[in-house]
Amino acid sequence: MNIDTQSVDQAVTAMAEVLADYLHPEEVRLLKSQWQRYSTVSVKMMQQCVLDVTRRYPELQAYKSDIRKGFWATLQADSQQTVESDSHNSHNGHNKAIKAPVPVSELVLAFYTVIEALRSQLSETESRNLFLTMHQTVSQERTFKGHSLNISQFLEGNRPSVPDNEHLLNNLMQLAYVCLCDVAGPVEADEMMFRAAEKAKQNYPKILVEKLF
């Protein structure tokens, strides 16, 4: 990522989206207003912003690494979202915006594997109840504000976009367990979770899968 191509407003807006998972909107607005005074985007600016968050809100010290990663990941996704191509499309008289593919991490892939392993153990009715309940809960939870999470896509065999964030994926997994308890009962839910985790460990490092639980 070339942060020189990022405007301060773009950078600050992207970082505010990350903080929406941790802070009240008014708290985010105050930090955003403070950061918009920077003249340019730089590594030093990014480091200072992380410090600003954890100093003002000490309870977020535990998530300092996640916040820092979130800042960079959001900026990177923003800077690579569109690519202008004029050499191949000059005959059309205009340039076409092409979305660059966003790489999917092993953690996210492990999450998909666990969720799909759970789905394979459920009947069609149970699966529908699980994912529709999850979808409805996610849309209402403050933790997931700022993220477009269409959990119901799992019902169609698709993989909805999820944040590459250990804290949020862990919360999603906890939510899946709670909803699974309602659908299948706590004893069966425990067994299903165990089998799903074991399946994921066949393809991904054990320590990585355990971060989800």
Outline the structure in words.
With 213 residues, the chain is mainly α. The protein has nine helices and two strands. It has a two-stranded antiparallel sheet with strand order 1-2. It is elongated. Residues 81-102 have low confidence and may be disordered.
| Uncertain parts | 81-102
Describe the sheet with the most strands. 2 strands, antiparallel
Helix coverage percent: 55-70%
Strand order of the largest sheet: 1-2
CA radius of gyration: 20 Å
Element layout with pairings:
Elements (H helix, E strand, L loop, with lengths): L7 H12 L5 H11 L7 H14 L7 H16 L2 E4 L10 E4 L6 H15 L3 H17 L25 H19 L1 H16 L4 H5 L3
Antiparallel strand pairs: 1-2
List keywords for this structure.
two-stranded antiparallel ribbon; elongated; 213 residues; mainly alpha; 59% helix
Task: Give a nutshell description of this structure.
It contains nine helices and two strands. It is mainly α and 213 residues long.
